[in-house]
Design goal:
This protein has about 500 residues and is an alpha/beta fold. It is built from 15 helices and 17 strands. Helix 4 packs antiparallel against helix 5.
Length: about 500
Amino acid sequence: MQVDLPPAWAAAGSPTGVKQYEPVRAVFWPDYPASAPSFYLRDDFPRNLPHLQPAPRTVPPRPCLVLGSEQNLFFSRGINGMLNQLSEWLHKAARNELIDQPSGWEAVLRNYVEHSFNADLAQLRAAVNGKQQNVTYLKCSYTTTPGKAGVHYYNGRITGERTALATRFEEIGQSKPRDGSYYGNNLAMLIHPKNQADGTRRVVPEYLPETVSDLETLRQRAVMYGCGSELESLLAVIDKHAKNKKLTAKSLAVPIPVPVIFCVPRPRPLIGSSSDVELIGYLLLVRPGTGLPVKDDTPVQYIQILEGLTPSLLRRFNQQDEALHTRNWAALGAGSLGSKIVLHMSRCGRSPKLLVDTGRLAPRNFARHALFPMTNEVTSLPGLDKALALAMGVDGLGADPLILRRNVEDIVEHDDAIRETAKVSGWLWLNTTASQAARNGLALHATDTRVPRVAEAALFSAGRLGMFTLEGAGRNPDTGDLYSLALQRCSSDASLAYLMFSAESVER
């Protein structure tokens, strides 16, 4: 394939090592055209360029043609579309323009890697201190997905909870298979470089090709990152503990995944992040009894380190300022309407600090409630706690609300209840109880400065009419005034009056 080079580069190639005529090998897989072909460059093509798929040096370099799926590119634009992308890729590679944002650092590609672990990335990066402790052990859990020829792919979650290596190895276990999958607990290891001899922070400014495939190449990469001695010590310790008799006695059907993550300081923040610490992960598979053979040809696999499900992530993907603090608010009511609002706000990374409800879920409630029962058995339990069930539902979204099993009208009548409720939700109380007693209680205490501003949401006539009110500054007008005004406006409109006042209208 001809690359458009300036005349001065035509003979010797570009400064990045791209030649005027680049040989390209296209591989058409057995199921073609049901799958896209793959394109490979010459064996000695420079690998220190971004947008190359990770692979050992025994595999020719393969360019990443598109941000997303090459399958979709092939199905939408065909071979010509893929060749056009490849031509553009080579053109940019020759001019060192593959990174669209030169002010940011392009992370190592992990697009087609089967293994993945998610974590709070800010928490992992905080471990990079350049001081005494350069290896950090964190608790993990994982599940496997069976693949071809008995191969298992690992997916897991790295917690921020630190652990001791020996203790965690003794805790390692694995569940019985379910649908061919296995579940267990393990540990992850963060390795971060020490400061340089003069005390300054070590920064790795080179874009290194991702060619790690075994312990030999992993050791070489660790030296480049300034973590060579730490990795060497770590491998020996892992091997020792994996051969522990207590672990050997356990019946583990598949190897234990041990993520090893290098925390690599870069000269610029990563693209899409405010941090300049790149997290580059590899996977070691440890077998009880056999341990980890500390040999050069012991295989090492790649893993994706994905950002875990946190409020910050949800705010960013909802196009909000992820650094903007969420003011503390309470959801008064965890029923049909309240559960939907709480879940939507939690998906936006703005979950309430407090859930207030005394009710219990009956099987019929699931017809309208935002929560889904995990199994049919759940619906037959004698009265699920609404507040607790909703708190558990949003817990998976990175929220951790408190719960209070108390009526709203009871809260405002007791000083201790007002004080404790306002302490954790001093900005706003959102009332979705559809309770006239709750509304009256809140309105009667409109002059109580301890009670924060109140909003109310309600549905009438089987959801055909909705109402949302928000008190004014200083709680004037208050929630009772606004409800009265809503009634007055509905009474002057025949269609609204029917929905609000007819026998079919039941506030929810």
